[in-house]
Amino acid sequence: MPPLSPSADCKLPMGLASGITQDSQISASGHVGYWEPKLARLNNPGKYNAWSIIKKEHEHPWIQVDLQRQVVITGIQTQGAMQLLKHLYTVEYFVTYSKDGRKWITFKGRHSKTQMGNSDGTNVKENHIDPPIIARYIRLYPTKFHNRPTFRIELLGCEVEGCSLPLGMENGAIKNSEITASSYKKTWWSSWEPSLARLNLKGRTNAWQPKVNNKDQWLQIDLKHFTKITSIITQGATSMSTAMYVKTFSIHYTDDNSTWKPYLDVCTSMEKVFTGNINTDGHVKHFFKPPILSRFIRIIPKTWNQYIALRIELFGCEVF
């Protein structure tokens, strides 16, 4: 079989830094003290902010990420950590991968299986996975290190079937006029307009909030073209120390902005209710299987914490 040749766009963060990858998906051969595998997230802040282990207590230490589906991996970003004034980092490592968690393959690249790691505890080192691999499980084995084998990581890639690019909420490709809502909250000092419903938007007023909080509210995106929508990320917001986020929601879609259809659960054939956020800044990602083929999409909050607030990104590709 010829080497995999994904598009140049197949370099998306797979969810460690953002929190989409859950703590339970990150495991290791062991760890030292409070330096648990769940902390191995790129740019993770705090006193204990990485995975670290004592090599002499583990002959071949490793850290593993279960992506819960097979994906294309095209790159790995690594970072060490600081303990007081001491740099902890991995100098060299190798990668193994698996589709089922039983049969493991060592990634050898085009020249060597050894990947060059970090040279201090703070900066990020990126290695290309060339040729790319398809896997569900990824393991990193540190072989050389400074003080202790230590990792904060991010995996880069895309979905196997492709069609997983951000559609433009975060980067502004979707225009403000293309984002509408049932209503929005406006006070003399703030205006929580639908155009603010952009993933990771900063500022004092940085999300969509409806005028009233009930189940008749919705946020709508006009993608301008018939689009294959494969996934969504949702995020909440904070206002005056109040945590606001949507806990459950449903999705409706249409081609003509008139006849709306609910996205159905494939098992029950009933309207699917998606689990939303549990805090204000974390990301929750849901995949649409089957994907949605449409121009207009609505997110309809079902339950929420304190007040409805949404920041989102849609993923997919234009069909025609």
From TrEMBL:
SMART domains: FA58C. Keywords: Disulfide bond. PROSITE patterns: FA58C_1 (PS01285), FA58C_2 (PS01286), FA58C_3 (PS50022). Transmembrane segments: none annotated. It comes from the Eukaryota. Residues 10-158, 163-317 form the F5/8 type C domain. GO terms for cellular component: plasma membrane. One of its GO terms (molecular function) is signaling receptor activity. The keyword RNA-binding does not apply. PANTHER family: COAGULATION FACTOR V, F5/8 TYPE C DOMAIN-CONTAINING PROTEIN. This is F5/8 type C domain-containing protein.
